[in-house]
Design a protein that fits this description.
The complex is a heterodimer of chains A (298) and B (333). Chain A contains 12 helices and 2 strands; from the N terminus they run H-H-H-H-H-E-E-H-H-H-H-H-H-H. Chain B is 71% helix and 3% strand. In chain B, strand 2 and strand 3 form a beta hairpin. The chains are: A mainly alpha (298), B mainly alpha (333).
Chain lengths: 298, 333
């Protein structure tokens, strides 16, 4: 009992608060990645294994554009657009011929894509980590730390992008098409919705979201060719924990898991903190396999 | 579900020979070639062939899940790696190192990992099964990578090869030839066991799960239990492959627990032809051969996985059955 009380008394409150902020920041980026993954899965029944690689590719295109122009915001917009076009062409080339086949073939095909992208980047850029400097360099005081404003800007931007995406789904014509296709593919086609192009568009949007989060994340840590796998794994965990195919659930789960990992990183190394999210996944599978953040299905 | 007798597409002219006879004749020819191979081939290709057999065993074990039960596992590196580290533990802790103890401990390690993975991930189907197996294999990777005191962390473990001992019969150092024959014997035995399993009533239930899970459950089979046993069985053979690889190379490294190994396993399966058991071995050979060819043509630095990835995707789209897909029905008859 005494040890427990001692443990609780020894929790560094300032560190806890800092990690809360950190957790929310990474959680918002993760939510952005996961929402693209959920969208692609919910509509096309395609598990995009290459989603992490699109994230990574976005970061690398960002690095290149940033080196050319020196402007972070141009890098962000250009990287998003380039990766969106790349995503669309990927979908047309590899996933479109697979429509109507076993969904498992799509996971294999996207796995092949991720292999190609990862090795291409390794070949072109080498194993050394790249970095983009922060566009906003001012800090504010958080206890003894000088906390960069940029991180809060990222969190805000991610939230704004997700909000924008949500409005797009609810209000625009293409958004209505997307929702109609999710509900009933055949009927949507019968109503004259160009379903194959909806698929391509959705894939492009998902790719764009992943790329944008990649560029946003780039100034926080180095850009390496292996970063994709970490993120796609986390995004998968988020999708399962949040309830498959639910956008709101994914966002909640992303923040939840990032917070837990941030807290765990107070006591163990960040590499081991990953295990916390694995444990959350196991517990979810055991007790609530439909997802933590969705209403109980009938 | 037994399939109705099918026309034999292989050799309409040899109709007089029974299917069984043709199969065993083919089997013996391939075996004879593989037995003679180490005495004929130069050192490099002998080692190449031995490793292809080991990778083939790993891929074959995963074929039991992909091809026969319809579950794509992206976590076979965990079983492979645990087999590796189990063997390493046995070889480092017990002196003199004992081959059979290494195999036993390797299998125990793989079985433990497989039980853990099977218990949780069989609750999910299709894609979610694939993802959870991947995540579980990453758990093992993180543990092995960070627990430096026991596993050697990034550097892995180095040990010496045990003697090849067959109780009361033989005791001697592994030579290149005996290593190859030993691997060949283990892989062949595994193939025959797995072939028997897939043709047994148990294997038929697995195939019916692949064809229609809901109906299998409706008939009254405890599908989850069958799946757990299938994952464990598959994990055991993957662990065996890990033990062989550890003994062949005299080290255990965390790289092999990493996701790349699982990905390669899936590629071998798809390239060679799922649901054939021998296909994955052919796929492993095909993959390694192209890789070797590319690095000889363009140098070691060439990113061989880019062309291989393209070949892989093209095969998924245009040749989903794989290289040996044309013989799938015949082999499973």
């Amino acid at each position: 009992m005494n040890t427990i009380i001692g443990f609780i008394q020894n929790i560094p409150l300032d560190l806890l608060l800092i990690q809360t902020v950190n957790g929310i920041v990474t959680g918002m980026i993760l939510a952005l990645v996961a929402s693209g993954l959920t969208l692609i899965f919910g509509i096309m029944d395609v598990v995009n294994f290459a989603h992490g690689e699109l994230f990574m590719l976005g970061a690398y295109v960002g690095v290149v554009v940033f080196a050319l122009t020196g402007n972070f915001w141009i890098a962000l917009i250009l990287a998003t657009m380039i990766v969106a076009i790349l995503g669309a062409s990927m979908q047309i080339l590899t996933l479109r011929p697979l429509i109507g086949r076993d969904p498992l073939t799509t996971i294999l095909a996207t796995f092949g894509i991720s292999l190609i992208l990862q090795n291409y980047v390794l070949w072109q850029f080498g194993p050394v980590a790249r970095k983009i400097s922060e566009p906003i360099t001012t800090h504010f005081n958080l206890f003894y730390l000088e906390y960069p404003w940029y991180r809060l800007v990222i969190a805000g931007l991610s939230a704004a992008l997700i909000g924008l995406f949500w409005v797009f789904l609810k209000q625009s014509k293409f958004g209505v098409w997307i929702r109609a296709t999710t509900q009933d593919r055949v009927m949507a086609q019968a109503m004259g919705i160009p379903v194959p192009w909806v698929y391509t568009g959705v894939f492009a949007i998902g790719a764009a979201l992943a790329a944008a989060s990649g560029v946003l994340f780039a100034p926080m840590a180095g850009v390496t060719h292996t970063m994709g796998l970490d993120w796609v794994l986390k995004a998968f965990i988020v999708v399962v924990v949040g309830g498959m195919g639910s956008l709101g659930g994914s966002i909640a789960a992303a923040i939840f898991i990032s917070l837990l990992e941030a807290y765990a990183a107070i006591w163990v190394s960040p590499a081991q903190a990953v295990i916390v999210s694995f444990i959350v996944l196991i517990l979810t599978l055991l007790f609530r396999p439909t997802g933590l953040f969705v209403p109980t299905p009938k | 579900m037994t399939t109705a007798p099918l026309d034999n597409p292989m050799a309409p002219a040899k109709r007089r020979l029974s299917h069984n006879a043709i199969f065993w004749i083919g089997f013996c020819v391939v075996m004879a070639l593989l037995i003679v191979a180490p005495m004929v081939l130069p050192v490099f290709w002998r080692r190449f062939l031995t490793e292809v057999l080991i990778w083939g065993l790993l891929a074959m074990s995963s074929d039991l899940l992909i091809g026969y039960t319809g579950m794509v596992s992206f976590g076979h590196s965990a079983f492979f790696g645990l087999g590796m580290y189990g063997a390493a533990a046995a070889l480092l802790l017990v002196s003199p190192p004992n081959l059979w103890l290494a195999i036993g401990l390797g299998l125990a390690g793989a079985a433990g990992a497989a039980l853990f993975v099977a218990y949780f991930s069989t609750r999910l189907r299709d894609i979610y099964f694939a993802i959870t197996t991947l995540i579980f294999s990453q758990i093992f990777y993180v543990i092995i990578f960070t627990w430096t005191a026991v596993t050697g962390g990034e550097n892995g473990l180095i040990f010496t090869r045990p003697h090849l001992t067959i109780p009361f019969l033989y005791d001697g150092r592994f030579t290149n030839e005996t290593m190859h024959w030993f691997v060949l014997a283990v892989v062949t035995a595994s193939y025959l066991i797995l072939r028997r399993v897939t043709r047994s009533p148990f294997g038929m239930v697995l195939q019916s799960i692949r064809e229609n899970e809901a109906r299998t459950r409706a008939i009254g089979y405890p599908v989850e239990r069958y799946k757990i046993v299938a994952v464990m069985l598959s994990g055991l053979f993957a662990g065996l492959a890990g033990v062989l690889y550890a003994i062949q190379n005299e080290f255990a490294a965390p790289d092999f627990v990493y996701f790349i190994t699982s990905g390669d396993t899936v590629i071998f399966n798809v390239m060679g032809g799922i649901g054939t058991l021998v296909g994955p071995i052919v796929g492993a050979g095909f993959f390694q051969l192209i890789r070797e060819l590319l690095s000889r043509l363009f140098g070691d630095q060439f990113p061989y996985l880019i062309p291989l990835g393209v070949i892989f995707i093209v095969m998924i789209i245009f040749l989903p059955q794989g290289l040996l897909g044309f013989a799938r029905r015949w082999l499973n008859r």
